[in-house]
């Protein structure tokens, strides 16, 4: 193979490939992208395309395969989905003017997060590149959606917060320092899963280098001008992204015009477990949008609105004024049905302006994209007139942010044909009447082709040869073809050009002159159309900032109309949101479960949580009765209120939460050697370390993964800790099958017992789904087992065993369970049990009493005597 590798073309290929060893190199050769050697072997399998070779059968055979340049995108997308990078190598000079081998170079490297073609992007999903950079216990994070130009950075106080951010963003690609990629922390690795990971060299994280990149990119003198501290870990994280773009995207990327610093304290903190448990954007079982809170609330009609709503759900607010602004806007649209419906109808005609703007800025837009931009801009004046009398501050701001770009709209309308072709190089894009020279060239082209037809008819008549034809090919241009049997009739002015099997080919001076005129006009038409289109695209790119503001305003309007529509259709109420501790929900419902057709009416329930008498709600009751639904609906209602959404209840007052924690269900992590119980304890420990009095905690069946006494002890201690530890006094929903925990309400003033009402009938249990005060006496586990289809023999035997256990049990009063060795043990106020071992003297005294013969005074004296004995 050595001699074949030393040809000029293969030398060029190998030199370029050496600069991109970790990418599959798409090497442009004419109308194809070719792949060679190992790249060809790999790509042919992944793409299911034919593998062939140069010098086939020889000792220096070189494997290669190729794909057409005009339909390359689906092939690139398949390689990206398979986890590979693709380097696109173009011819960077005109082959007609090249001396020797055509110059080629890589113009871009496509990675999972650097894909910008619409066909490879999910309309409702952001395509984030997330850069993470550790700095002691803190982490810097920067995330970019290249398709829209969104670029944000943040400083995170811990690895847990970093993992939570990564879970909320669900990036398509992670960018890490080499050391972190090599040995990622366990908590981060769990969230990252199998997402593609790229690296930057350690020297890229130098703060001076990062500061220079940031300042050059955004045209500022110092990072502080963007709100970015030079000492912050977010600075090298953002510098890493800009360096990565420089290395892989050799373009100016003008749509990256701003960097936003995000403070994590502006948003409700949600760890990955809570996001998964509450099924905010996808279901746990199938990882689908349908069945999640997002699926329930999403009535948006634009891709921009869908993406932004997902961001709202992932990052609820904690600032009351901004929440109230959103609620005001939703309320106004909920009350104005006709306006809301008309707004939704107009928004349906809006294309994805964010990604259109990105493609225009990166010179990737075609004629169809500009027509889509025109169609969208034409809706703006109508929307502005529709919203002229709206009163809410947020809607007015959205209306004022919209820019119809009248001049650009007019120019696109005059320049681009209604149905432009996909290709930019073959003409047919620019409309008649837009450019005088182009119109003239088209006239020449049309008349020239007509001349050829007329010339053919005239020559047939002049020569008497009926089979005479005027043909065209790329090698010889236009020529007159005469069969050999008719050569005797060829005129003297015909000039012989070529002999073929059954005919001779000729030209004339007249034909040659017209050929130059016609073909020159057609080539000039294509070049001029492309030039005119580029000018128009550049003009559109110059309006990128206005397009970005307009897209953001439209996305916000889309979300507001969608939330208002859901509120009206499902009878949601506007919550009162404040900075207090009280969460009071009247007739609350689970938004997702309520929307499902489960064959029974959803039963609403009240909730009262505060920092006083109702800090912890201890909820007992059987399985399947609705405890988990009740707790999750409370958490979702709080979260919905902080999104700025109406909530499924008759009324609701929500004291803002800074964090929501959940510990629900069983799960293990066998790959990390963690049992179900270990995972449960780790999640609980995380809650106890991080919860505050402003937090909302949902705990379901703490301690069930170990023995009864161990589990009960842990659950008891956790409840006490949440109640007694001042810095961790979170509002808590605590569901349990340990009925003994209900005794805590007698010794802890801020614990309230609730249970799920049930009725027994003919040894069957009927779930009433209603939460009522009090505690359950037992769990009805055997009845639930019968409903699950357990064999009858097992059910009967379980009843016998249960009876034996119950008859042998000792009553466990509070003094035994609540007993503490602490010097500051909390005193118990309940009645002393008469049936403890130390009560023998009382038993003997009571046995001797004749109650029926006592006078009231004697009874009082006896009571005093018994009290002294105690």
From TrEMBL:
Residues annotated as domain DNA mismatch repair proteins mutS family: 695-711
Family: Belongs to the DNA mismatch repair MutS family.
A Pfam family matched in the record: MutS_V
Name of this chain's protein: DNA mismatch repair protein MutS
Function: This protein is involved in the repair of mismatches in DNA. It is possible that it carries out the mismatch recognition step. This protein has a weak ATPase activity.
Keywords from the named record: ATP-binding, DNA damage, DNA repair, DNA-binding, Nucleotide-binding
Database matches in HAMAP family: MutS
Superkingdom to which the source organism belongs: Bacteria
UniProt xrefs under PANTHER family: DNA MISMATCH REPAIR PROTEIN MSH1, MITOCHONDRIAL, DNA MISMATCH REPAIR PROTEIN MUTS FAMILY MEMBER
Binding site residues for ATP: 621-628
């Amino acid at each position: 193979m050595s001699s074949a590798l030393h040809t000029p073309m293969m030398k060029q290929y190998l030199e370029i490939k050496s600069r991109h060893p970790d990418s599959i190199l798409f090497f442009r050769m004419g109308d194809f992208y070719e792949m060679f050697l190992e790249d060809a072997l790999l790509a042919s399998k992944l793409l299911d395309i034919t593998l062939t070779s140069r010098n086939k059968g020889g000792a220096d055979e070189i494997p290669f395969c190729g794909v057409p340049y005009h339909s390359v995108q689906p092939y690139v997308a398949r390689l990206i989905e398979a986890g590979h990078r693709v380097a696109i190598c173009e011819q960077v000079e005109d082959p007609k003017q090249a001396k020797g081998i055509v110059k080629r170079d890589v113009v871009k490297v496509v990675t999972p997060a650097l894909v910008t073609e619409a066909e490879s992007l999910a309309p409702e999903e952001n395509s984030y590149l997330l850069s993470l950079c550790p700095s002691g216990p803190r982490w810097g994070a920067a995330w970019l959606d290249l398709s829209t130009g969104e670029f944000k950075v943040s400083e995170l106080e811990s690895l847990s917060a970093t993992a939570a951010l990564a879970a909320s963003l669900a990036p398509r690609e992670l960018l890490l320092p080499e050391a972190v990629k090599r040995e990622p922390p366990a908590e981060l690795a769990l969230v990252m899963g199998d997402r593609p990971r790229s690296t930057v060299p350690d020297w890229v994280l130098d703060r001076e280098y990062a500061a220079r990149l940031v300042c050059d990119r955004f045209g500022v003198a110092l990072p502080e001008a963007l709100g970015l501290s030079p000492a912050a870990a977010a600075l090298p994280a953002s510098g890493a992204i800009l360096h990565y773009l420089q290395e892989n995207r050799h373009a100016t990327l003008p749509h990256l015009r701003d960097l936003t610093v995000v403070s994590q304290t502006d948003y409700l903190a949600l760890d990955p477990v809570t996001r998964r448990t509450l099924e905010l954007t996808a279901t746990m079982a199938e990882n689908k949008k349908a069945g999640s809170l997002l699926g329930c609330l999403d009535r948006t009609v634009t891709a921009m609105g869908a993406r932004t709503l997902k961001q709202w759900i992932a990052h609820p607010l904690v600032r009351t004024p901004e929440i109230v602004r959103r609620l005001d806007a939703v309320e106004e649209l909920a009350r104005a049905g006709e306006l809301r419906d008309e707004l939704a109808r107009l928004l349906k005609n809006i294309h994805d302006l964010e990604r259109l703007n990105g493609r225009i800025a990166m010179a990737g837009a075609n004629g169809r994209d500009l027509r889509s931009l025109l169609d969208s801009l034409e809706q703006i004046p109508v929307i502005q007139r529709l919203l002229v009398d709206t009163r809410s501050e947020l809607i007015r701001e959205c209306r004022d942010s919209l820019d119809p770009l009248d001049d650009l709209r007019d120019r696109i309308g005059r320049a681009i044909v209604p149905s432009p072709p996909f290709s930019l190089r073959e003409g047919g894009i620019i409309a008649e009447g837009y450019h005088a020279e182009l119109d003239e060239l088209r006239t020449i082209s049309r008349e020239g082709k007509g001349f050829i037809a007329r010339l053919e008819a005239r020559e047939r008549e002049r020569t008497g040869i009926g089979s005479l034809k005027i043909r065209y090919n790329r090698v010889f241009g236009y020529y007159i073809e005469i069969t050999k049997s008719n050569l005797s009739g060829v005129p003297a002015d015909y000039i012989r050009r070529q002999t073929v099997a059954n005919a001779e080919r000729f030209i004339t001076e007249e034909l040659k002159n017209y050929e130059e005129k016609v073909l020159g006009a057609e080539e000039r038409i294509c070049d001029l159309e492309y030039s005119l289109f580029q000018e128009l695209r550049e003009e559109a790119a110059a309006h990128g900032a206005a397009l970005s503001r307009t897209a953001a305003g439209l996305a916000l309007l889309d979300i507001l109309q969608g939330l208002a529509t859901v509120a009206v259709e499902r009878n949601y109420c506007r919550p009162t949101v404040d900075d207090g501790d009280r969460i009071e929900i009247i007739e609350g419902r689970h938004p997702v479960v309520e929307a499902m057709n489960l064959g029974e009416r959803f039963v609403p329930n009240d909730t009262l949580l505060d920092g006083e008498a109702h800090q912890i709600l201890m909820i007992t009751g059987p399985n399947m009765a609705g405890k988990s639904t009740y707790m999750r609906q409370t958490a979702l209602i709080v979260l919905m209120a902080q999104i700025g959404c109406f909530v499924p209840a008759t009324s609701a007052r929500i004291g803002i939460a800074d964090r929501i924690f959940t510990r629900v269900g069983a799960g293990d992590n066998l790959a990390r050697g963690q049992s179900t119980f270990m995972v449960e304890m780790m999640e609980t420990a995380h809650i106890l370390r991080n919860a505050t009095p402003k937090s909302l905690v949902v705990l379901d069946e703490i301690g069930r993964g170990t023995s009864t006494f161990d589990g009960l002890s842990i659950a008891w201690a956790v409840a006490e800790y949440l109640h007694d530890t001042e810095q961790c006094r979170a509002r808590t929903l605590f569901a349990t099958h340990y009925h003994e925990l209900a005794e805590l309400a007698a010794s802890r003033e801020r614990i309230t017992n609730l249970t799920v009402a049930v009725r027994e009938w003919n040894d069957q249990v009927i779930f009433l789904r209603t939460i009522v005060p009090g505690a359950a006496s037992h769990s009805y586990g055997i009845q639930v087992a019968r409903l699950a289809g357990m064999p009858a023999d097992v059910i009967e035997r379980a009843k016998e065993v249960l009876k034996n256990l119950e008859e042998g049990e000792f009553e466990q009063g509070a003094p035994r369970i609540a007993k503490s060795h602490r010097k500051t043990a909390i005193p118990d106020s309940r009645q002393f049990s008469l049936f403890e071992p130390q009560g023998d003297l009382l038993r003997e005294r009571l046995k001797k009493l004749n109650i029926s013969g006592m006078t009231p005074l004697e009874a009082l004296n006896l009571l005093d005597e018994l009290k002294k004995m105690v």
